[in-house]
Design a protein that fits this description.
The structure holds two protein chains of two kinds. By secondary structure, chain A is an alpha/beta fold. Helices cover 51% and strands 11% of the residues of chain A. Chain A has two domains: 285 residues, NagB/RpiA/CoA transferase-like (Rossmann fold); 79 residues, no CATH class. Chain A is globular, with a radius of gyration of 26 Å. Chain B has two domains: 38 residues, no CATH class; 179 residues, Rossmann fold (3-Layer(aba) Sandwich), CATH 3.40.50. The chains are: A alpha/beta, B alpha/beta. β9 of chain A pairs antiparallel with β9 of chain B, so a sheet runs across the interface.
Chain lengths: 479, 229
């Protein structure tokens, strides 16, 4: 069971800032993703128009989601596949478990699926005596470490190469202990060798889906390693785990969104493998699964429709918002305390596990707006974090000092004269006190600020006072 | 299927919740018309100008993009030259003179006996070093091969052998994805796809360890494209 540690966000963040391995690993997030995305966006003159187009496609689909789901289901059935619906994570797990049991599964290979993390499918398969094997290199590494992913497309981005080497030596005890693993290339080759055998043995393969296409009843996965493909073509049974909002109408529509997906995620023009799967193997096919199942999960998403959070259902999980977030860049993904980190997680997590547990996440934002600026689906993430803050306030979930402080400020802000009077006094006092140094190293009630940086001393007058003086001076000159 | 009743209950509950939240009905003729129209007409949206080139331009762009993604590209004038081109590639890369391929009509009809290459047929079982496939199409815009599953070109050949050689006819290199969809609809019918359509834009790779790009994660380490014509 992956423990939810979102309520301890502040302690998590503090620990993350003091973790030298994590800080070293995060330097790659701070540079590579950002520079690569920017370069590939600039290289395609239609990029901004494609973002608009992608947003519009998803908006249209969400407004007709019931009809597109029905159309999709009809096509899957026509192709010989099975569609199962699950309202909750528990229902989805039961469905998957019963398909695996019916297939007599001993081992299950898995492509990367965030919904699999959301419903903790691995833990439940293990409890039922079925061994789940993560096959994405990053997922494989964190499975060895019994950790959740720290990033939605680069699950092991929080680790250094040395840590991975140590894990492989610990886990792969049947190999020569003196083997050379000093290069990333050697680590990859070792994982490839071990997983190749597991691919060939597996009874069931579980993948996620980047898209479900209503026109053809097709599930689409996007990968670079090819692990998702080996997961879905080698075992006898292929299970696709997807949430309701993954549906898009047509092949043309998915092509619009694919053009912004990889560019926003890794800066590639296209990921190496984009695979369209429709039903089980056909009569003359020499390979592919005999059975094809799609488990469609709601888990609270339908409630986001028609609400302030509907736009979040456009998310295609590219992780651009994580990569560009100054908070994520400093603390990584684990501090967020559940499956989805960064700005998209700050909006989604309170919906999925409750604002009482995840209320800290929408507060972990400077509202700098970079997430919205880079979101390929133009999701107004800061606005939605603001909605969560409001809900948190309405439900009296913040600490008393915070509420009292806000109350005092609100009392003053509603009385402009009193506000000007009070701030005027405060600015004069602070201005005089800080006059000599020009800054404060410590201030009562502002320890949270001054602990990490100095507070610049005010000019001695409020902005409004200075504005009035300037206006007066200007008028004097004109006259 | 176990839990059939349960899943039908869940289906009705989810669709019902979606309709309630959206404040809509399933019968609304306007909504149904809009959905039918989109599924039938499949509007194209924004198609980048970069792929809108003549045949020579498309081949050049496709080659450039493929090479940028660490694939190698060769060009031969006619299909009969494919076996020699494959043999040359195998020799240059110190690979055994053996390839595995499906029952593809074009590849099957070639004069393999003129080379020393041993050809075996069928899906890959994981022990073959080199897979050979015939792509139905390619996309110049992004440097992407399009392969479809079936007895002619088994999907396992695209992923299990460490080296994948793919022949594609120059005339099949389209400017954009939309042109490929139009072609597949003509071949398979509207709303129908083969079991698997693989879009391949280079050899397999991973950057999961400190974001260092490594080729040959789970799929082929080497991808070699032979453009024919």
């Amino acid at each position: 069971m992956v423990a939810i540690t979102s309520p301890q966000f502040k302690a998590n963040a503090k620990a993350a800032l003091a973790d030298p391995n994590l800080q070293q690993a995060l330097t790659h997030v701070r540079h590579n993703f950002i520079e690569r995305r920017a370069a590939s966006a600039v290289a395609l003159p239609e990029f901004e128009a494609l973002r608009d187009s992608s947003r519009d496609i998803k908006n249209h689909t969400l407004a007709n989601l019931d009809l597109y789901l029905e159309a999709y289901e009809e096509k899957v059935t026509e192709a010989g596949g099975h569609v199962h619906y699950a309202e909750t994570g528990e229902e989805a797990r039961d469905l998957i478990l019963s398909i695996c049991r019916k297939a007599g599964a001993r081992t299950v290979t898995k492509g990367k699926t965030m919904i699999g993390e959301e419903i903790e499918i691995n833990e439940h398969l293990e409890a039922a005596g079925i061994e789940p094997i993560e096959t994405d290199l990053g997922e494989y590494i964190i499975q060895l470490r019994h950790e959740p992913p720290s990033h939605i497309i680069a699950p092991a981005v929080h680790l250094t190469q040395k840590q991975v080497e140590d894990d492989f030596r610990r886990a792969h005890t049947h190999l020569d202990p003196n083997r050379d693993l000093s290069e990333a290339r050697e680590l990859l080759a070792e994982a490839r060798g071990i997983l190749r055998q597991r691919f060939l043995e597996a009874d069931v393969g579980i993948t996620g889906a980047n898209f479900l296409i209503a026109e053809t009843g097709t599930s689409v996965i996007v990968t670079n390693e090819g692990n998702g493909d080996l997961t879905q073509i080698l075992p006898r049974v292929h299970i696709v785990l997807a949430s309701i909002e993954k549906v898009v109408p047509t092949l043309e529509d998915v092509s619009q969104i694919l053009r912004v997906l990889a560019r926003s995620a890794t800066g590639q023009e296209m990921s190496t493998y984009t695979t369209f799967s429709t039903g089980p193997r056909r009569r003359d096919d020499p390979d592919g699964p005999d059975e094809y199942h799609v488990v469609i999960l709601d888990n609270g998403r339908s409630e986001m429709l028609g609400s302030q959070f509907q736009d979040m259902l456009r998310c295609i999980r590219c992780a651009a918002c994580l990569n560009h977030c100054p908070v994520y860049q400093e603390i990584g993904g684990h501090a967020y305390g559940w499956v989805y980190p960064g700005p998209m997680g700050a909006v989604l997590t309170p919906k999925l596990i409750g604002v009482d547990k995840a209320g800290n996440l929408p507060n972990a934002s400077t509202f700098c707006g970079r997430c919205e600026a880079v979101c390929p689906m133009r999701i107004p993430l800061p606005n939605m974090m603001r909605h969560w803050r409001e809900r948190e306030f309405e439900r009296h979930l913040q600490p008393a000092t915070y509420r009292t402080g806000l109350g005092v400020w609100a009392f003053l802000a509603r009385r402009p004269r009193l506000y000007q009077f009070a701030t005027g006094i405060a600015m004069r006092v602070l201005g005089n006190l800080g006059h000599r140094r020009g800054r404060f190293r410590a201030l009562p009630l502002a320890g949270g600020w001054t602990k990490y940086r100095d507070l610049p001393a005010p000019a001695g007058k409020t902005f409004q006072e200075q504005w009035k003086e300037k206006q007066r001076a200007l008028k004097g000159r004109e006259a | 299927m176990s839990g059939r009743d349960g899943t039908i209950g869940a289906r009705a509950a989810i669709l019902g919740k979606i309709r309630r939240q959206l404040g809509v009905t399933a019968e609304d003729p306007k909504r149904n018309a809009a959905v039918d129209a989109r599924l039938t007409r499949a509007p194209k949206g924004v198609v980048p100008a970069r792929g809108q080139l003549d045949a020579a331009g498309r081949i050049a762009l496709f080659t450039e993009k493929m090479e940028k993604a660490s694939a190698s590209v060769a060009r031969v004038t006619n299909v009969e030259a494919i076996p020699t081109a494959v043999a040359e590639y195998l020799r240059a890369h110190n690979l055994p003179a053996a390839v595995r391929m499906g029952e593809d009509a074009l590849l099957n009809a070639l004069p393999w006996q003129k080379t020393s290459i041993e050809v075996s047929h069928g899906a890959s079982e994981g022990s073959d070093a080199v897979g050979l496939s015939h792509a139905v199409a390619a996309v110049a815009e992004s440097g992407t091969l399009v392969l479809t599953s079936g007895a002619d070109n088994p999907t396992t050949l695209n992923f299990l052998p460490a080296t994948h050689i793919v022949a594609v006819e120059a005339a099949a290199i389209a400017g954009d994805f939309e042109a490929v969809w139009a072609q597949l609809r003509k071949r398979y019918g509207k709303g129908v796809l083969p079991r698997t359509v693989n879009m391949v834009s280079g050899p397999s790779r991973s950057a999961d360890i400190e974001q260092k790009l490594q080729l040959g994660a789970h799929g082929p380490k080497d991808l070699h494209v032979i453009i024919v014509g």
